[in-house]
């Protein structure tokens, strides 16, 4: 699916004013985006932001309420599901044949997509090795832990080398060693012109693997861009993390230079333009009747870019 040098990029996913609302502000609200072949595109948002609904729309699992959606050149919004044969999918839940081995489960999935022979066995062997499942390949899935089941589901999504792989919360429940291997696998896919769609709230991992990210809040796409460009917007800023000794509610500070502010329980986060704003910020916290237990100041990250653009804090 990769475009030839000098030719326009091939668009793998294109949505215009796509809508699927479950309730006001819940679901997907007039989202427009385009993902080129070979990209790893990450949709980041809090729980309930609409990430899973948007992902399910790509798979034809949710009805399109308005707008248009084309996946791999096929109009999903008109009810077409022909694109599913070119997809690999790992959602936030997975199902396996418990009595069969991990290897047998993966073989079944690959053969359902028309893969067979020594080429398939070689690819599965490499994927099982990189997932750390090789020693357990012949054991029944019923004996697998949650993390092993998640890794098996991801192997199944990748085993037939799909044009588009759709992953919903792929980092949930898996170990750091596999996350490094998965990032490498996705980068290799991009080099082959294959496309990856990620829906996640794991900002740090997405920043390492995605070629572009989109921030979704209350069903709306707030901003999109490369991780580097979005972090560059907040790079002059400092993140101040204040831990309170008690659960006092602190109002947003009316201070020049404080670009964003959020509170979750006893944890406060603020983006400030200069370190000299810190004393005034702490004075504001004290004036609200809160006692400061700890203060940390760090450089801005993609998580801070989300806070700046949406006004909401994105937690793992």
Alpha-carbon distance between the termini? 33 Å
Q: Sheet with the most strands?
A: 6 strands, mixed
The coarse silhouette is: globular
CATH class of the largest domain: Alpha Beta
Please give the count of helices: 9
Helix and strand string, N-terminal first?
EEEHEEEHHHEHEHEEHEEEHEH
**Count of the separate structural domains:** 2
CATH architecture of the largest domain: 3-Layer(aba) Sandwich
> How much β-strand is present in the residues?
25-35%
Record the strand order, biggest sheet. Answer: 6-7-8-3-9-10
Structural class: alpha/beta
Q: What percent of the residues sit in helical stretches (DSSP H or I)?
A: 25-40%
Radius of gyration: 22 Å
List low-confidence stretches: none
CATH fold group of the largest domain: Rossmann fold
**In total, how many beta strands?**
14
Mean pLDDT across every amino acid position: 91
Name of the CATH homologous superfamily of the largest domain: P-loop containing nucleotide triphosphate hydrolases
Structure commentary:
30% of the residues lie in helices and 29% in strands. The protein is of the alpha/beta class. The strands form three sheets. The protein has a six-stranded mixed beta sheet with strand order 6-7-8-3-9-10, with helices on both faces.
Provide a concise account of the structure shown.
The chain is α/β, with parallel strands linked by helices and 316 residues long. It contains nine helices and 14 strands. It has helices at residues 51-58, 102-112, 117-130, 146-158, 176-191, 203-209, 227-234, 278-287, 302-310, and strands at residues 11-23, 26-36, 40-44, 66-71, 74-75, 87-90, 164-168, 195-200, 212-217, 220-225, 238-244, 258-264, 267-272, 292-299.
């Amino acid at each position: 699916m990769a475009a030839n040098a000098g030719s326009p990029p091939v668009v793998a996913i294109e949505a215009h004013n796509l809508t699927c609302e479950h309730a006001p502000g819940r679901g997907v609200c007039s989202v427009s985006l385009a993902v080129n072949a070979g990209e790893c595109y990450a949709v980041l948002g809090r729980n309930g932001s609409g990430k899973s609904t948007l992902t399910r729309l790509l798979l034809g699992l949710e009805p399109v309420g308005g707008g248009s959606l084309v996946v791999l050149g096929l109009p999903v919004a008109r009810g077409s599901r022909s694109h599913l044969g070119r997809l690999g999918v790992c959602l936030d839940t997975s199902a396996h044949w418990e009595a069969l081995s991990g290897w047998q489960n993966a073989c079944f999935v690959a053969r359902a997509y028309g893969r067979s022979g020594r080429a398939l066995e070689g690819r599965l062997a490499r994927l099982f090795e990189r997932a750390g499942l090789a020693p357990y390949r012949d054991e029944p899935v019923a004996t697998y832990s949650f993390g092993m089941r998640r890794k098996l589901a991801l192997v199944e999504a990748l085993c037939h080398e799909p044009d588009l792989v759709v992953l919903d919360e792929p980092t949930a429940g898996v170990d750091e060693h596999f996350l490094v291997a998965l990032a490498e696998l996705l980068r290799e896919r991009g080099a082959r012109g294959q496309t990856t769609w990620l829906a996640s709230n794991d900002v740090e991992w997405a920043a390492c693997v995605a070629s572009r990210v989109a921030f979704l809040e209350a069903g709306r796409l707030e901003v999109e861009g490369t991780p580097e460009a979005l972090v560059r917007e907040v790079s002059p800023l400092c993140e101040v993390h204040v831990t309170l000794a008690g659960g006092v509610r602190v109002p947003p500070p009316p201070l020049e230079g404080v670009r964003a502010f959020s509170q979750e329980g006893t944890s406060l986060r603020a983006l400030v333009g200069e370190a000299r704003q810190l004393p005034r910020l702490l004075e504001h916290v004290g004036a609200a009747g809160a006692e400061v237990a700890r203060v940390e100041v760090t450089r801005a990250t993609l998580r801070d870019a989300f806070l700046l653009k949406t006004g909401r804090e994105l937690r793992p």
